[in-house]
Inverse folding.
């Protein structure tokens, strides 16, 4: 009897929240939400209203494509409790309760992983080049793929939006922040630029080191080969240094963990090789002892380093979902 009364009471509370709380209609009205957060100069707006035992969230983004939000990632996107939504060409809204299984995805629906869809209600519409999505979910669920939301504690948030309705396509903007549901304050974490720098400088290092190795192997009869070979090796070392520093800053800004995936271990070995290969080359030219050994380690060190760089690059592209 007591269990039945508790069940009825829960249904009444839930029904009352649905009737008198935020309406998930894709229209964010003045005063409908208690808190508004602005990200990336206002191109991404997140609205929140806590209605125990539920929470209502509204998203307005400068796109006609998909929008996504995630809660409490362990590192970058890994293990984030996510909601991804879009409005199709016919004006029908769609929303998925998802979970990210890696640093950069994938993020399949909870139901594909054996969990449940815990979105109580959702709605959305496109207007004036913007997509507006609203959804309601419990603060706590019994699904292991949902993160509990405690309004009294800071909440780590990630967000993104894309150009198309296909949420597997690369985002056009993304970010992360720590928000306080009590005070309405948000601390935006701007780490994306460092990831871009990491990709650019590490790509440059691969090209520079590969070119240097090729010149030493195929152009030794040219009078200029040694000077160019040495210069490319030094530039490759400097480029890997900047690339390493950039990814360290990216992980720090996004609250991630260092050396959490094999890509980082292969990458650090490539960085070490990029620094030591030019040193071995200089030692071979300047020193008079053990020249054959120094030449051997310099030559093969360069080849191994280029191989490690290539493997690290492929693993990085895999993490990004490019391959």
């Amino acid at each position: 009897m007591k269990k039945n009364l508790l069940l009825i009471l829960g249904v009444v509370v839930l029904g009352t929240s649905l009737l008198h709380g935020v309406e998930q209609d894709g229209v964010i009205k003045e005063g409908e939400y208690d808190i508004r957060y602005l990200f990336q100069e206002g191109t991404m707006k997140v609205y929140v209203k806590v209605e125990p035992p539920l929470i209502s969230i509204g998203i307005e983004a400068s796109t006609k494509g998909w929008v996504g939000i995630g809660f409490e990632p362990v590192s970058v996107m890994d293990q984030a409790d996510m909601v991804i939504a879009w409005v199709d060409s016919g004006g029908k809204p769609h929303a998925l309760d998802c979970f990210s299984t890696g640093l950069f995805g994938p993020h399949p629906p909870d139901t594909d992983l054996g969990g449940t869809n815990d979105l109580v209600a959702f709605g959305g519409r496109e207007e004036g080049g913007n997509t507006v999505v609203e959804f309601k979910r419990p603060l706590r669920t019994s699904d292991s793929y949902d993160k509990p939301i405690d309004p009294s504690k800071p909440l780590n948030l990630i967000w993104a939006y894309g150009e198309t309705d296909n949420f597997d396509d690369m985002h056009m903007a993304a970010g992360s922040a720590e928000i306080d549901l009590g005070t309405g304050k948000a601390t935006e974490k701007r780490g994306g630029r460092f990831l871009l720098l990491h990709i650019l400088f590490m790509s440059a290092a691969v090209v520079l080191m590969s070119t240097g190795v090729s010149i030493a192997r195929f152009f030794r009869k040219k009078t200029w080969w040694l000077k160019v070979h040495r210069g490319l090796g030094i530039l490759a070392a400097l480029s890997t240094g900047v690339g390493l520093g950039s990814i360290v800053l990216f992980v720090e800004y996004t609250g991630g963990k260092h050396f959490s995936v094999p890509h980082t271990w292969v990458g650090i070995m490539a960085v070490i090789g990029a620094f030591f290969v030019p040193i071995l080359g200089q030692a071979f030219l300047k020193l008079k002892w053990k020249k054959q050994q120094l030449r051997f380690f310099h030559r093969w060190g360069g080849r191994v380093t280029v191989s490690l760089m290539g493997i690290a690059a492929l693993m990085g592209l895999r993490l990004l979902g490019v391959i």
In short: Residues 193-320 form a domain with the Four Helix Bundle (Hemerythrin (Met), subunit A) fold (CATH 1.20.120.1770). The chain is about 40% helix and 25% strand. The longest strand covers residues 130-138.
